[in-house]
Amino acid sequence: MNVTIPDYDPLILPLLRLSSDGETHSFSDTVELLADEPGLTAEERAGLLSGSTQNAFEDRMERVKAYMKEAGLLDFPKTDLFRITQRGRDALKSEARHVDDSTLGQYAEYDDIKTLRHRSKVKNIGNTNVPAESSRDQLAIAFRRFQSELENDLLAAVKQAGPSQLEHIVVDLLVAMGYGDNKQDPARAIKQTDDGGVAGVIKRDMEVIYVRAKRFDGTIEKLEIHCFADALKDEGANKGVYISPSGFSKEAIAASDTIDCEIILIGGVKLANLMNKFNLGVSTSGQYPIKKINPVYFNR
Q1: For a FRET experiment, which of 26, 97, 100, 230 has its CA 20 to 30 Å from that of 181?
Q2: φ and ψ of 178, to 5 deg
Q3: Residue 187 has pLDDT above 70, yes or no
Q4: How many other CB atoms sit within 10 Å of the CB of residue 36?
Q5: Helix, strand, coil percentages in the chain from 3-state DSSP, rounded to 5
Q6: What is the mean pLDDT of residues 214-224?
Q7: Please, where in the chain does CATH 3.40.1340.10 lie?
């Protein structure tokens, strides 16, 4: 029996609409609520991926979850909880009748997972004649999903960090990225500010760099970037680094590109990516080496 399960595109808009109330929702409960949205029968909802024990509809939803997180439309404070972001509200307002892959594609962060998209193109779930993905592909997809969940948890932890913890995170990240040198320790330059953030001026060779980090309830808008640029000039710095777990709006990113001085924005998903990359706040729990045939051994 061939069971047809909708691709992830038709599930994006219903998920945005459901979260438009601004409340935090349970993802596992939402799967059940949205199962009827595409008009699936009970038989279709129970359809399984060939060779898998995971419900096919839930598998689609897992992909929607990862894609909308990467696009910045939804925020996941915890693994199973999500809420709409300002970017998600804007997308819902401007694309009230149709939100699909092309909508997500306008966001730069979404490019990182386009290579995984081929899995969602399988249409005949119950057809065993459909070529299965290689084990290597499955492993790559599973690993990317794990990384996405890990970075989501990292971001949630940073958002809950107090001023002192935020200070340590900023200093550790700057050092890991090469902003510290023997002439000046960022830990001596970066200090807490009265508004709950941290800021400071560090020097690297001939560069004077103004650093600021702060949490916001919503997305950081362009006005904050202009204020940051003014502060940068007041400090006599020629480069600015703004770090925030809150993320930056599209207008804020555009504003940073038009300002005379160089401003580097590290926020939201990008911050979690860098912390994961430089092993900040994470530890290795297991290693699985990938091996391949050595032709030299067999050609002796």
Answers
A1: 230
A2: 90, 15
A3: yes
A4: 12
A5: 50, 15, 35
A6: 88
A7: 162-277
